[in-house]
Amino acid sequence: MRRRTLRSLLALPAIAAATALAMATPAEAAVVWNGDADNGMTFREFLCDSGNYVYTPDWGDGRGKHWGFVAKAGTTRCESYGVMVGGSEYNFTSGKAYWFGWEQMTLTDNWGVFFQWKSNGTGEQHDQNYPVIMMILEGRLNVWYVAPGEVWNHVTSVPWTAKTWHKLELGINAQSNTTGSFQLWLDGDLVTDVKNARTWDLVGNKPRWGVYDTNVLAEDQVNWVNGLTMGTTRGDVD
């Protein structure tokens, strides 16, 4: 990820939100991937700086186990990469709708990236890198649409409370041209609705969750994620 300062991120221009997410979905939709920690390792791998780690606590609150991504002070990365379905890595493709649902709680309300719709490529193999990227900055959840040429467009900024569980539902209409779109629902409210966007980079994308590119290097950062699911409609993941 290209390093940017906190101030420069918040100063990036916004683009207008749309009113609907146009997604073609099959008549009989279903959960495609259940990434809950109670099901064991369902990611391809974890990418963590030395000293960082992922653990699966059960706090006896009825949620069972959940993922805890821990980035120690002075480090910048601990995240998941790829999802596994039926023993094989799931093949994301363009022209399809993907919905992701999860609960999330963070230790602090000012750190960095917790989700990337990350490009499969490196260097000249991509020209967006992460068409959809979300961060916690200065007590707010922020969403960017990154257009071709890595042009950052700030589309959402809503309040975020640390040490509290929040429900997120993200829908991405993965398109290699500007017919793509994406929505984000937070705690049952629609907070992001963007269309006319390219949501599929040159060699494709995968989701990543965790802690990345933290802006507060003096503090430990933790992102807890519970009940991860993926389907083709919002109803699959609500």
From TrEMBL:
Keywords from the UniProt entry: Lyase, Signal
GO molecular function, one term: lyase activity
InterPro entries: Polysacc_lyase
Gene3D superfamilies per the UniProt record, alphabetical: 2.60.120.200
Name listed for the protein in its UniProt record: Heparin lyase I family protein
Signal sequence extent: 1-29
Domain of life: Bacteria
